[in-house]
Structures are given as structure tokens and as C-alpha cells.
Amino acid sequence: MLQSAKSNLAKLPFFGLRDQFEASQYLFTWTFGLHFHQGITQQLNESLYFNWDSISDTDLASVKTQNAHDLQLYKFGQKLFSERLIYATNEDKKHGKTLFLPTLS
Predict the structure, then answer these.
(1) Pair 89, 31: CB distance under 8 Å
(2) pLDDT higher than 90, residue 96
(3) Neighbours of 22 (CB within 10 A)
(4) Does residue 33 belong to any structural domain of this protein?
(5) Model-level pTM?
(6) How many structural domains does the chain have?
(7) Which residue, 77, 105, 89, 90, is CA-closest to 26?
(8) What does the pLDDT look like over 30-63, one tens digit per residue?
(9) Are 9 and 77 a contacting pair, CB within 8 Å?
């Protein structure tokens, strides 16, 4: 099932990562050739974030075990996203465009 999910993700022409919102917006516009007149802003609602300090080490280990496939898929998605972002920015540089210069972590 994990391999199928990775394959399906790789087949998508675009996907974004919430924690890389600006890079996702850039990659969306690059992938589909769309350009927004005004940038899209990310509305963050701090109350939606989980307070990881409130969970015990035992419970955290249990969550990680139960969600191991999700975590592996997310790591795969991060790597694929970075590869696509690097490709897009390199293509833009070849053509003299400097629309977005990401800082990849």
C-alpha cells in the first residue's frame, strides 16, 4: 500500500507542502503556467496546531509507530517536492527568469 501511495503521488503533476507554502505556490504557477496578479497568503490558525509538549514520550512513540507509513510517505513527498522545485528553478534560471529562489532545508 505504501508503494502504491508513493507511485500515485509521483504521478501527480503537482502537489504542495503546507510547511513550504511559498515554494508550493511557485511550483503550482510553474507547473501549470499560471501567474497570479496578487500573491496568495497563507492564513495560519495557531489553534489548529497540536502542542507536542503535551504528549508523553510513550504516547509519541505509539503515534509514530501507528503512523509509520504516513511518515514514510511524507518524507518521500518532501524529497520529490524538493527535486521538482530544484528542476523548476533551474529551468527558470536557464531562461533568465528569477521568479523564486527557494531556500531548501
Answers:
(1) no
(2) no
(3) 14
(4) no
(5) 0.79
(6) 1
(7) 89
(8) 999 887 766 666 666 655 667 778 889 999 899 9
(9) yes
